């Protein structure tokens, strides 16, 4: 038992380096972003009359900026010495998004006089992910920079040792994101206590406090940049003391010794993508999401082909197979907002209980990453995806069963102990680690395989492909919510009149369909890779 703890837990602490801290602080800021998640859910449910289909479409546009990792990644390579500017830009966009929500809650009538509240909310919802993607691109590149190429004596570090460092760095990156989620989940449990019993004005004040506290997010990421600058200064000073000149120090320690040539395909493609996306979105063309998604996919696939042209056939087959597996796994649709509304209305899950579920999920996700660390390192991606798919399918059954009354039957036979909340807690505890596990070996493999002078570009293009899967997931979620319509009760705040009645009659079928899709598609992909020339990392 002690050997297992040492291999999976304590060894990660021993492998931690101070140079890892700057990107980890940017990732931590991303983890803290979930502080406003529960508040946002209840704000939309209680004060905005937005449908589940609209929210799924909004989710598509919120995930789409992650496709901008392509031109942004190349931009980071081109302006490597000044990449911190992008973190400041991202921090500014995040702050603006938070200030909009603070304005909606504290100066509602003033904001309403300028534009509809739903428009303000959509603007805030779109600005935040743009800010996070800008920071994430820089953080990804910083993870490569954080892994040293030489030891303190200036000797090159062995490639196998550096590979293990990359795995540690990527694992710690996920730990930072989830650790931030744990911190804010604890805060939500405390701050959301008894909020469900407050008046509308009292709820508004509680929500406002959380958005005000969220202003710490951009501050944390900026502090990471300041730390990176200090560490760089200290490293230069250390090698200068050994008699090396500035050029020799740069050659030894820098990821980018020479600035790569400008790739106009990437920058031009990113510009075209941005212009077309904004144009299609603002003009509100029919099928806007599908047009933009198709264009994004074409651009990303073209760039992947350009970047992998020089790879050996075996390496290319591994890259394509691994990326395809992760794409399909992440593209599985979700039930949408309707499932959460049902839990709130029918199961009585209030703000504090949802915060408690979030806390449990974050803690156990973190624990699962440590527990399955060697599992991820020793198994192929196909094996990992297959195992996670089976586990995810099994763990979706309790929620489906509760829709059909499982919690009522168990509560009646256990004296009320095994009720809806008990089942939700157990299910969350078991399901939590699944989502993050698949990403770590993928990220480590990209970081270790990318060309030296195109680390950020390569990382960004491959990450864009897998992140487009989230856009595909949102599109599929929108389609499913068009077929199986789920509505919660919407009441006019001023008149108290019910404008939309609650209807969860089709939710059960929706949950079943999503579960079947979530099992069949990944398993078919695993089989296809198993019996084709493609391979997985």
UniProtKB/TrEMBL annotation:
Chief site of localization: membrane
Residue intervals passing through the bilayer: 20-43, 50-68, 80-105, 172-191, 206-228, 264-285, 291-308, 315-333, 353-372, 384-406, 507-529
Zinc listed as a keyword: no
Protein's membrane topology: Multi-pass membrane protein
Annotated keywords: Membrane, Transmembrane, Transmembrane helix, Transport
Pfam families: BT1 (PF03092)
Signal peptide span: none
Any one annotated GO CC term: membrane
Cellular compartments annotated: Membrane
UniProt cross-references to SUPFAM superfamilies, sorted A to Z: MFS general substrate transporter
Family of the protein in this entry: Belongs to the major facilitator superfamily. Folate-biopterin transporter (TC 2.A.71) family.
Protein name, as recorded: Folate-biopterin transporter
Lineage: Bacteria, Pseudomonadati, Pseudomonadota, Betaproteobacteria, Nitrosomonadales
């Amino acid at each position: 038992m002690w050997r297992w703890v040492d291999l999976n837990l304590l060894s990660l602490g021993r492998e931690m380096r101070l140079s890892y801290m700057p990107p980890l602080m940017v990732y931590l800021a991303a983890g803290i972003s979930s502080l406003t998640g529960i508040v946002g859910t209840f704000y939309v449910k209680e004060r905005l009359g937005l449908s589940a289909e609209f929210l799924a479409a909004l989710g598509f546009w919120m995930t789409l900026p992650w496709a901008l990792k392509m031109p942004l990644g190349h931009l980071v390579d081109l302006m490597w010495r000044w990449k911190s500017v992008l973190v400041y830009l991202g921090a500014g966009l995040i702050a603006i998004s938070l200030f909009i929500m603070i304005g909606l809650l504290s100066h509602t009538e003033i904001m309403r006089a300028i534009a509809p509240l739903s428009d303000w909310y959509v603007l805030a919802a779109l600005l935040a992910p743009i800010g996070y993607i800008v920071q994430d691109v820089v953080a990804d590149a910083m993870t490569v920079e954080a892994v040293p190429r030489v030891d303190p004596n200036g000797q090159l570090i062995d490639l196998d040792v550096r590979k293990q460092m990359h795995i540690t760095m990527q694992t710690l990156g996920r730990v930072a994101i989830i650790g931030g989620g744990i911190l804010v989940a604890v805060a939500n449990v405390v701050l959301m206590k008894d909020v469900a019993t407050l008046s509308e004005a009292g709820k508004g004040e509680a929500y406002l406090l959380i958005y005000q506290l969220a202003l710490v997010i951009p501050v944390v990421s900026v502090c990471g940049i300041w730390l990176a600058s200090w560490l760089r200064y200290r490293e230069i000073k250390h090698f200068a003391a050994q008699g090396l000149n500035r050029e020799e120090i740069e050659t030894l320690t820098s990821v980018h010794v020479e600035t790569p040539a400008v790739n106009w395909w990437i920058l031009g493609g990113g510009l075209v993508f941005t212009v077309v996306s904004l144009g299609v979105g603002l003009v509100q063309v029919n099928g806007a999401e599908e047009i933009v998604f198709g264009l994004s996919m074409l651009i990303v696939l073209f760039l992947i082909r350009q970047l992998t042209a020089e790879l050996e056939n075996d390496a290319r087959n591994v890259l394509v197979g691994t990326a395809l597996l992760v794409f399909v796994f992440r593209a599985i649709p979700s039930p949408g907002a309707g499932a959460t509304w049902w839990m709130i209305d029918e199961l009585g899950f209030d703000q504090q209980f949802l915060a408690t579920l979030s806390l449990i999920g974050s803690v156990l996700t973190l624990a699962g990453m440590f527990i399955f660390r060697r599992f991820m390192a020793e198994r192929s991606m196909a094996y990992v995806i297959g195992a996670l798919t089976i586990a995810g399918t099994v763990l979706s059954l309790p929620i489906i069963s509760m829709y059909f009354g499982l919690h009522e039957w168990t509560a009646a036979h256990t004296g009320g102990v095994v009720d809806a909340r008990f089942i939700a807690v157990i299910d969350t505890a078991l399901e939590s680690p699944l989502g993050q596990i698949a990403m770590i070996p993928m990220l480590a493999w990209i970081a270790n395989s990318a060309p030296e002078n195109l680390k950020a570009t390569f990382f960004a293009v491959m990450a864009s492909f897998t992140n487009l899967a989230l856009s595909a997931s949102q599109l599929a979620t929108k389609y499913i919510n068009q077929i199986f319509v789920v509505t919660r009760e919407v009441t006019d705040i001023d008149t108290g009149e019910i404008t939309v009645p609650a209807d969860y009659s089709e939710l059960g079928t929706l949950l079943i369909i999503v579960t079947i899709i979530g099992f069949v598609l990944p398993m078919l992909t695993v089989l296809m890779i198993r019996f084709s020339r493609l391979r997985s990392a």
